[in-house]
Amino acid sequence: MRHAHTVEQVRAAEADLMARLPEGTLMQRAASGLAVAISNYLGHTYGARVVLLVGSGDNGGDALYAGAQLARRGAQVTAILLSDKAHDAGIAALTAAGGRIHPLASSAKGAAIASADIVVDGIVGIGGRPGLKPEAQAVVQVAVDHDVPIVAVDMPSGVDVDSGETPAEHVKAAFTVTFGTHKICHFVDPAAAACGPVHLIDIGLELPAPAVSAIQDADIRERYPVPHGESDKYSRGVLGLMAGSSQYPGAAVIATSGALAGPIGMLRYLGPDEVATAVRAAHPEIVAGEGRVQAWAIGSGLGDELEVDKVRELLNAEEPVLLDADGLKALDDSGDHIGVLATPHAGELARLLGVERSTVEAERLKHAKLAAERFDVTVLLKGATTVIAAPDGQVRVSSNATPWLATAGAGDVLAGLCGSLLAAGLTPLDAASLGAYLHGAAAQLASASGPLTAMQVAKKIPEATRLLLDQDIPG
Ligand SMILES: NC(=O)C1=CN([C@@H]2O[C@H](COP(=O)(O)OP(=O)(O)OC[C@H]3O[C@@H](n4cnc5c(N)ncnc54)[C@H](O)[C@@H]3O)[C@@H](O)[C@H]2O)[C@@H](O)CC1
Ligand SMILES: Nc1ncnc2c1ncn2[C@@H]1O[C@H](COP(=O)(O)OP(=O)(O)O)[C@@H](O)[C@H]1O
Ligand SMILES: [K+]
């Protein structure tokens, strides 16, 4: 996993470390990492035209010191000061290295930005409030208008660091260079989408348990329930699937494809006869009808055929239950649903919480956590990045999907796969995490930068799993 911490956690860790180091050491570490990342991005330093947008705090200080290092290696560096206040030692370092300083009033600043190879956003960092002041917005817009890439120092200025929300104007970066640890805005949309690829520079912080973790390749190998010599089809896990209806028979076929591509030994299908026939035709491996299962996946394409009372009974039984799509209507806030995994998209989560879909889209982390707490379930909120919130407060994200995955039926594949992982014995948090990540990896294989269907994603899950399990991960 990669980990993200809150601003408060970062400030505390920085204070601890700073007390043990000579003054300025952390900023020098940050600035050196930033300068190297900029040089690597440009592919050259000598003669490169670099413009720094410098705010009043230490974020601007990072930009100035990095600018000084680049200037020493032959870059033409110009700093535009957006505030009357700026990091004095940083200004002195840049000036000594031959960089130029423009106050905000300078008439040359527009031309400098327009002809730059890169603009460095040192407007605000973890000390920033969301939004950009008009003068900052104006200079950022010049870079946008002239297609000049922007590197964000720590994070794109204007985003809400601890929530990943973007309630106002903010920078959209080509890439971001951050320090010490990731921040929540790097992982959670819509802010994450404004970061571009994020480079982490180690500055030696000692950090507490993270606020949010992002799933990586290595997590699959560490946690996937691989069968062993003594395994049989029952011990590997049996999933009970209640999905599909005469209205939406395809959902049952697609969800089954997702489930059979996961770790289970067997799948029992419960549903209307004609749907069971369709599922069996596509997947002769399935067993239709009641029997013991280790977990349930309920909801994809059920339409009006959802039997609320029966589902509520299952929610109170011992076996874990995944609720998707129409199945989510059975969820109530009577509490004690610790083994339940709910997999809504933003519209479904909005209905559950009685708010607008746009509100959930704008505040994804907040609403995923709110629902996890209110319904006492693990919530997997689908979207370009998937946010997973457990009732104990743990949060994970999965960001490896491709936008081509936004296609009908993709959610049914995910429900089947996560149900399969639940039945194999993973916790709802791990089942959701591994399911979302494998789903994203399979979508990448199925897409190869082009269109895909949900069934093609399901077909690629075994290959994606194999590649991730076989991968030789260093360290
Ligand atoms: N504390 C440390 O040890 C380190 C800090 N570092 C850098 O320091 C940054 C934090 O620096 P600061 O705490 O000085 O805070 P910032 O530089 O993020 O913000 C400074 C000031 O900007 C003003 N401001 C707030 N919101 C604004 C807005 N929307 N528009 C314009 N101005 C606004 C406020 O007056 C605020 O005090 C980090 O993000 C990182 O870049 C790094 O050098 C690593 C080490
Ligand atoms: N822009 C996007 N980029 C990447 N993945 C996406 C994007 N939008 C949606 N997804 C993923 O596609 C799937 C869509 O699921 P869902 O909305 O339930 O569709 P359906 O109900 O038609 O199956 C989810 O796994 C979701 O995370
Ligand atoms: K910034």
From TrEMBL:
AMP binds at residues 382-386, 411. PROSITE patterns: YJEF_C_1 (PS01049), YJEF_C_3 (PS51383), YJEF_N (PS51385). Residues 10-211 form the YjeF N-terminal domain. K(+) binds at residues 59, 121, 157. One of its GO terms (molecular function) is NAD(P)HX epimerase activity. Residues 216-468 form the YjeF C-terminal domain. The keyword Cell membrane does not apply. Its EC number is 4.2.1.136, 5.1.99.6. The keyword Ligase does not apply. It catalyses: (6S)-NADHX + ADP = AMP + phosphate + NADH + H(+); (6S)-NADPHX + ADP = AMP + phosphate + NADPH + H(+); (6R)-NADHX = (6S)-NADHX; (6R)-NADPHX = (6S)-NADPHX. GO terms for biological process: metabolite repair; nicotinamide nucleotide metabolic process. Keywords: ATP-binding, Isomerase, Kinase, Lyase, Metal-binding, Multifunctional enzyme, NAD, NADP, Nucleotide-binding, Potassium, Transferase. (6S)-NADPHX binds at residues 58-62, 125-131, 154, 251, 301, 345, 412. It comes from the Bacteria. Binds 1 potassium ion per subunit. InterPro entries: Carbohydrate_kinase_pred_CS, CARKD, Nnr, Ribokinase-like, YjeF_N_dom, YjeF_N_dom_sf. Its cofactor is K(+); Mg(2+). Homotetramer. HAMAP family: NADHX_dehydratase (MF_01965), NADHX_epimerase (MF_01966). Catalyzes the dehydration of the S-form of NAD(P)HX at the expense of ADP, which is converted to AMP. Together with NAD(P)HX epimerase, which catalyzes the epimerization of the S- and R-forms, the enzyme allows the repair of both epimers of NAD(P)HX, a damaged form of NAD(P)H that is a result of enzymatic or heat-dependent hydration. NCBIfam families: yjeF_cterm, yjeF_nterm. In the N-terminal section; belongs to the NnrE/AIBP family. In the C-terminal section; belongs to the NnrD/CARKD family. This is Bifunctional NAD(P)H-hydrate repair enzyme. It comes from Kribbella voronezhensis.
